[in-house]
Specification:
With about 375 residues, this protein is an alpha+beta fold. It has helices spanning about 5-25, 30-40, 55-60, 80-85, 90-100, 105-110, 115-130, 140-145, 155-160, 160-185, 195-205, 220-240, 250-255, 255-265, 335-340, 360-370, 375-380, and strands at about 280-285, 290-300, 305-315, 315-325, 330-335, 355. The longest helix is centred in the middle third of the chain and has 25 residues, at about 160-185.
Length: about 375
Amino acid sequence: MSIPQNADRARSRYAAVLYRSALLRDPDPARAGQAIIAAWSRIDWDTVPLDDQLESRLIAALPPIPRVRWKRRASFAPLPASFWTLSPQTRLALGLRLLRGMGSPAIARALNLSLPETQTLLLDGLLQGSGITPSPDIDCRRCALVRLDDASGERGHLLNCPHCRETLPQIERYEAELAQRLGRAVGSVGLPRAVDDALVATAGATGNRSAAPLWRRPLVWQFTTVGLVLLGLALLFWWHGTPSVVNVTLADRAASAKAIIDDARRQYDAVPVVSGILHRRWAINLDRPQLNLQADEWVDPQQLGRYRMQLMTDQTTREWQVGDGTGELRYVSNLAPFFCGMVPPGVDLHSSEQNIWHIAAQEQSDMRISRWQHGAWAIG
């Protein structure tokens, strides 16, 4: 069946990831498949632009979840039980943030919410899912909301608030853990063949609406086909119960470069579980300032507070951070003027001096994660 070019390209790029998002909203595979078919049919594929907002438009077109659910919920083993106590909208929002790498503005468009409503939804979901007790102070809440999309925001408040310095790293750790669990649970789930066939039929029907005369339009046959496919899909999952997770090869996932990039971002500061000390090396090439940095990290996967991170140009060490995993963190840098703004008079005299803090192993691990989110490490 001939379908509009935009529909075919969007199908190969977004159909599978849309299905995974629908599973987080409603983990019943049959209903998730029906939801994305319904969303697909609401798009005018002859006129819709194939831009970076198309995924948000498809999410926004998902129909409401049925109030009466006649089938038990599917289970995804790696996800904690607390995740399923969140509202479907909150689960979807967290999935878009942690799996798809969407910022709050994009999530707001996808959920038809305002930006403050979306940030509140995300923060409350993270707090409820993690069990972290929020501060009643309005300034603390504003700090947490701002830092959802700006990791360097509200620095003044953070410097003077012990509660935020304690809880914000806890929220970040929970986010990182939840992102990994979401990826293991649904990151490789493939689009069912029956759903894919239904998307082709639906897009074909949309594309032929204005092309054929009324008496020759195959809408009746096409929607009958969609209905039969949906019925077969529902019966399939009814008889066979919850399907096992489908293993998708890299070749299958290569159809979506964006999905691969999003996966890489989620794993940016994650540590693979290996035996011994893990050594990784990257090249970080910056335009402003023009620096070509060699980045190295040595870390003990069994004790994340024991690590070494360094940035070098040629044979010159530009930044160096070492945690011993017991009680001491050391840090040296001469990159501050490039990333921290104007250096106050006199402070430049202490550039490249070694700083030592006596902090616990967990705090050293938190400082490693923080280093990945700031300066050249984050930009690279």
